[in-house]
Structure prediction request, 347 residues.
Amino acid sequence: MILRLRPGTPDAKVQALRDRCEREGLRTVLSPESARPVFAVVDKAPAALAAELRADPSVEELIQPQGDWRLVHRSFRERPTTVKIGGVRVGGGEVVVIAGPCSVEGRELVLEVAQLVRRAGAQLLRGGAFKPRTSPYSFQGFGVEGLRQLKDAGAAVGLPVVSEIMDASNVPAFVDHAIDCLQIGARNMQNFTLLKAVATAGRPVLLKRGLAATVEEWLYSAEYLAHYGCADVVLCERGIRTFETATRNTLDLTILPLLREWTHLPILVDPAHAAGIARIIPPLSRAAIAAGADGVAVEVHPRPEEARSDGPQALLPAELTALVADARIMAAVTGRSFHPPPAAACS
Ligand code: PEP
Ligand code: MN
Prediction:
């Protein structure tokens, strides 16, 4: 349950309420919220204790979440959370675009893409160095060398970088190479060992929705990250597996407004892995922002037919420029602003 105390409740009173719970063997976590004291009781509280707390004059609201998430629950924060990736704010009323190659394919190419991503006006550079490929014969990524190339390209153009981590043992490599945001891919959304390890990396995490995960399961994974030490989680809807075969996956925009009610975390949409077809990504991106997404994540390649992964869904440079222009318009239409370009040196 989550206790939202009245603004101005003295610290000693907050502590007394937490102590009351802890004496029953229940763990509590204080929200970083500054507008008012809020704390979560992460273990299940007996009904009698809940009733007692609800009756306390300092308790304005006691919420029993419908799911088992607490720290990522909407009520745990006063306003939606803003997550900082390098110098870029995700959430909080600004729209961002993440763009880059599906895979880091070499030093020159990733630099070329980084330059075009920067020129197009996107704020974050993505690129996979550890690739989760369905076939063992497909390109698996350059591993640590790919991280180095991605970071160097991002630093050269002044963009923070996002890259997927697949194995807990690689956390030090991601930290050592100053990867600004660690991506948990759809296939690993419920790899709880990985979630626990990544949570300790001290970096923001982009948590993609699993291929067949319900929103509840997705939020439980976000709760794992929060519980094990990472408060800076960004959710990313990337399409789910349905009976439909016309597209690679089905982009589930339906859940966006509900997610807003259920969690305070920022929400991005990756229409590329949902669609699998480059030409339909622009309207899906506009729809995602219209539905309230804090931004979109897309793939771009100067020669998609040569891409070593996900070529069919890679935008051409000019298409990325147009998509960013659309995102700017959609941000304004929905009463938000488009995040300014990051400063040249960002991490
Ligand atoms: C990716 O971002 O390149 C990727 C593999 O995404 P997903 O985990 O959503 O399939
Ligand atoms: Mn991809």
The mean pLDDT is 97. Residues 2-64 form a domain with the Alpha-Beta Plaits fold (CATH 3.30.70.1140).
